[in-house]
Design a protein that fits this description.
- With about 270 residues, the protein is an alpha+beta fold.
- It contains 5 helices and 12 strands.
- It folds into 2 domains: about 130 residues, no CATH class; about 130 residues, Umud Fragment, subunit A (Ribbon), CATH 2.10.109.
- The longest helix is centred in the middle third of the chain and has 30 residues.
- The radius of gyration is 23 Å and the shape is elongated.
Length: about 270
């Protein structure tokens, strides 16, 4: 819920502030009523552009590694061109403006867009919530390849949360797995069952009966800052069973909302 709230506020603020700024910048356009029309239509145009970019993003820029939210320079350049130069053509055509008269509202849009991009990359992404895409099936059926979700960087991890993290290896990609073991616990696998402190752990439905290939002799003693994470698709997941426990400093955050594709929107943390 935290991530959804942050991004909704950011999204709506961008649309409204850009609409107001462009309305002011278009003060040379005809009459006051025409300027209001410019602002309203601009907000609708910006809303449509943002939704279109969100929908096209996965097909235009498929990811080939484990979940990663870091866009490439080409990715950023294309999004910048689509998000800034398309509105110029739309403003000119929709409001029947000359190129010189279209430039003023276009310039206002650029300033607002760049301000929000700076806000996202300096405050939102590093400190509050981050967006990721999962390209591999290691979290099926909970997460499917191509799913996009937000991670809450401030949430305290709880057992069975979906947690984004990096492994203990230098330069490793970002992973997302289910948290099953908490600090200072003793874990062991036996007869396709996970035991925590010698008590059988009731796993979520997505993981039932899927520990069939886990070594029955695996035992793990978790330290005060250790977490143990396993993918829901236990047979194909590369996780703490192979790499060992994950230190608290390697955790990025807890996945709390799946926002794309639209037919799979759901809360991931309750």
């Amino acid at each position: 819920m935290f991530s959804l709230t942050i991004w909704l506020i950011l999204f709506l603020s961008h649309v409204v502030i850009a609409g107001i700024a462009i309305t002011w910048a278009a003060r040379a356009v005809n009459s006051p009523s025409a300027r209001i029309r410019v602002g309203i239509l601009t907000m609708l145009i910006l809303f449509a552009i943002n939704i279109t970019l969100l929908s096209a993003d996965r097909s235009l820029f498929p990811k080939t590694d484990e979940p990663s939210g870091s866009p490439s320079p080409i990715h950023l350049a294309v999004l910048l061109i689509l998000g800034i130069f398309i509105p110029l053509a739309i403003f000119r055509r929709a409001f029947k403006l000359s190129w010189s008269r279209a430039f003023s509202p276009w310039g206002a849009h650029i300033v607002i867009a760049l301000a929000f991009v700076a806000l996202v990359y300096t405050v939102i992404e590093p400190r509050l919530t981050r967006s990721f895409v999962i390209p591999l099936p290691s979290m099926q059926p909970t997460l499917q390849p191509g799913d996009r979700f937000w991670v809450n960087c401030h949430a305290q991890p709880r057992r069975f949360d979906l947690v984004a993290y990096i492994t203990n290896e230098s330069g490793s990609p970002i992973f997302i797995k289910r948290l099953v073991g908490l600090p200072n616990e003793h874990l062991r696998f036996w007869n396709n069952q996970l035991y925590v402190n010698d008590q059988p752990l009731q796993l979520p439905p997505a993981m039932h009966g899927r520990l069939t290939f886990t070594n029955d002799f695996q035992r793990f003693e978790l330290g005060p800052n250790d977490f143990f994470l396993i993918g829901d698709d236990c047979e194909r997941s590369f996780d703490s069973r192979m790499t060992g426990p994950v230190d608290r400093s390697k955790l990025i955050g807890v996945a709390d909302f799946l926002y794309f594709p639209l037919n799979r929107i759901k809360f991931l943390r309750h």
